[in-house]
Amino acid sequence: MDIRDFNFMDGMAKTEVLSTEGVYLAERNDGCFRISLFQVNDFYVEIYYQKTRSFYICIRSFEEVSELFPYLDKIDISEVYKVIDRV
């Protein structure tokens, strides 16, 4: 599946893909939203929740690595360093 296939899906299908194929990476807060970040194959997906409600407001996908900037201080890469030390 690529980003175009994902974007053509309805909301229920997108959430199913996130739960079965998505890799949870991080979460951040932005105003009244809690935003969870997932990776699916070679693209990323943000799912926006209103903090006061338990259902999602929107799902946004992107491929640009530069859009990961708001998450960089929240992603734990300590395991990467362990692998590098073994090499």
Average pLDDT score: 88
Helix content: 25-40%
Fraction in beta strands? 35-45%
User: Uncertain segments of ≥5 residues (pLDDT<50)?
Assistant: none
Tally of alpha and pi helices: 3
Distance between the termini: 32 Å
Query: Major β-sheet, in short?
Result: 4 strands, antiparallel
**Rounded Rg:** 14 Å
Structure summary:
The chain has 87 residues and is α+β, with helices and mostly antiparallel strands. It contains three helices and four strands, in the order H-H-E-E-E-E-H. Helix content is 28%, strand content 36%.
Tags for this entry?
87 residues, four-stranded antiparallel beta sheet, globular, alpha+beta, single chain
Can you describe this structure?
By secondary structure, the chain is an alpha+beta fold. The protein has one domain (3-86). The protein is built from three helices and four strands; from the N terminus they run ααββββα. It has a four-stranded antiparallel beta sheet with strand order 1-2-3-4. Strand 1 (23-30) and strand 2 (33-40) form a beta hairpin. The protein is globular. The mean pLDDT is 88.
Give the topology.
Blueprint: H1 3-7, H2 11-20, E1 23-30, E2 33-40, E3 43-50, E4 56-62, H3 78-86
Antiparallel strand pairs: 1-2, 2-3, 3-4
